[in-house]
Every structure is written in C-alpha cells, then in structure tokens.
Design a protein that fits this description.
This protein is α+β, with helices and mostly antiparallel strands and 117 residues long. Helices cover 44% and strands 26% of the residues. The chain is built from six helices and five strands, in the order H-H-E-E-E-E-H-H-E-H-H. It has a five-stranded mixed sheet with strand order 3-2-1-4-5. A hairpin with a 2-residue loop joins strand 1 and strand 2.
Length: 117
C-alpha cells in the first residue's frame, strides 16, 4: 500500500490545480490497511506520508482492505462510494471526508494523459 501511496503523492505534486484545495489545510489522517498503517499529513499546501507516527495528532481514520485502499489512492473509486459499499470505514468529520474524496479523485492520472507523460 505504501508504494501506491507514494505514486499518489507523485501524481499530486504534478497537478498544481489540486494543490489549491489544501493551501490553508492542516490535518492528519490515519490510513490503515490490513497489516499496514501510515498517516497522510496535509499541511501548508503540501501532502506527505508518515510511517510509524504517533496517533495523538490524527484527526480521523480511513481503514479497509488493500484493494479498496488502492482504489481510493488511485482515484478510481470515490471515498464515500467505497464506504457505502462496505469496503472502507471512516471516522472523519464530513468536511474532511469531502476534502479527501476531492483530493484523491482529482489527483488520479487519466490513462490518455499518462500516455503523453
């Protein structure tokens, strides 16, 4: 899952239009998948990952199986759809849920564009 998360970060950093969404955001969300866990930190207009970090500063959690987490990080399925289908569980405020859903979905690389790059 960490490899998929790293790919997500690379895609995010290439897309300036998505970075505008997080200029004033400061949150930490735990992402848990089977045996893996890390934090997605959004701060000062950037996103980075923390492995083995202290959960005291976490604002919420997204957890589920590896397939669903990969779909989320790749932007192929929306966060709330995965929750409705029972593939992911979340403990996040609605505003944070909507922000994360937007970030993941807008960061996905379209196949046509990926071929050009």
């Amino acid at each position: 899952m960490m490899e998929t998360a790293q790919t997500f970060l690379e895609n995010f950093n290439r897309q300036g239009h998505v970075q505008e969404l997080i200029k004033q955001v400061d949150i930490r969300v735990a992402l848990r998948c089977e045996q893996e866990s890390f934090q997605l930190v959004i701060k000062s207009g950037g996103i980075f990952l923390l492995a083995n970090a202290d959960d005291q500063q976490v604002k919420g959690e997204v957890s589920g199986n590896a397939v669903a987490m990969k779909q989320l990080l790749e932007g192929t399925d929306r966060l709330r759809d995965l929750v409705r289908q029972g593939k992911l569980t979340i403990s996040l405020p609605l505003r944070t849920t909507l922000l994360l859903e937007s970030i993941f979905f807008l960061t996905k690389v379209e196949e046509d564009c990926a071929k050009i790059i």
